[in-house]
């Protein structure tokens, strides 16, 4: 490792503020800072909305790293640094895809110190994907492991990537360590829950509170359940999808928010 709110009826509304000892987790596919249908650059609005959740950890997928400024991407700095601003002093980035204009991948923004991180290449058949594994060091607490995931579009690719995820967890995360895995699983056929539960002991945050995983895509009329939050050795206090304004206008995915505690 390197050093370094109108909600669907099937889910629970988050509490107004995180209680002491809990960790508030937000995950969203940023769509490279563009609104649905690629019409507007929305990163400033996305940053404001993310700040309003008071999240301790923010899992980002499809976030821009190094790039040359373009009309649709007017920033010449990494998008994850812009989103982190002054609220999340620690961040890590895992580059997944590279093009002539720059690169994008997964990122983790954190209020807690990131003591180590490593980006695992999960690409299959040339489709660039990754799993960003970070070890966090909350003050006065045991290490917390966090893995930000963006899986492939084809089911057989996802099946291979889920096996890789379980192998990474078995190899790198102690059996008694607190673990959060979140991101865009592209799991529209809803196969991931059983695979990761049996393969590495992960539990769906929504299942833990007696709810179905919510629909998150497309953001303005969600039909598919693509995004996930999983935990191990943590209790889930609440879990919800953020479907109220302005979220449907900020990306093509709706974000998930959960509160967990040891």
Summarize the structure.
Helices cover 18% and strands 34% of the residues. It has 262 residues and is α+β, with helices and mostly antiparallel strands. The two termini are 25 Å apart.
Q: Describe it for me?
A:
There is one protein chain. This protein has 262 residues and is of the alpha+beta class. 18% of the residues lie in helices and 34% in strands. The protein has helices at 43-52, 79-84, 155-172, 192-200, 205-208, and strands spanning 22-29, 57-67, 90-99, 102-110, 113-121, 130-137, 144-150, 178-184, 203-204, 227-232, 235-241, 256-261. Strand 3 (90-99) and strand 4 form a beta hairpin. The longest helix has 18 residues, at 155-172. The radius of gyration is 17 Å and the shape is globular. The chain starts with 21 loop residues before the first strand and ends with a strand.
Furnish the topology, listing elements before pairings:
Elements: E1 22-29, H1 43-52, E2 57-67, H2 79-84, E3 90-99, E4 102-110, E5 113-121, E6 130-137, E7 144-150, H3 155-172, E8 178-184, H4 192-200, E9 203-204, H5 205-208, E10 227-232, E11 235-241, E12 256-261
Parallel strand pairs: 1-2, 7-8
Antiparallel strand pairs: 1-12, 2-4, 3-4, 5-6, 6-7, 8-10, 9-10, 11-12
Helix pairs in contact: 3-4
Share of helix, binned? 10-25%
Instruction: Please report the total strand number as a whole number.
Output: 12
Task: Spell the H/E element sequence.
Answer: EHEHEEEEEHEHEHEEE
Structural class: alpha+beta
Give the overall shape, derived from the CA principal axes. Answer: globular
Distance between the termini: 25 Å
Count of alpha and pi helical runs = 5
Poorly predicted parts: 1-18
Widest sheet, order of strands: 3-4-2-1-12-11
Gyration radius (Cα, Å) is: 17 Å
Beta-strand residue fraction: 25-35%
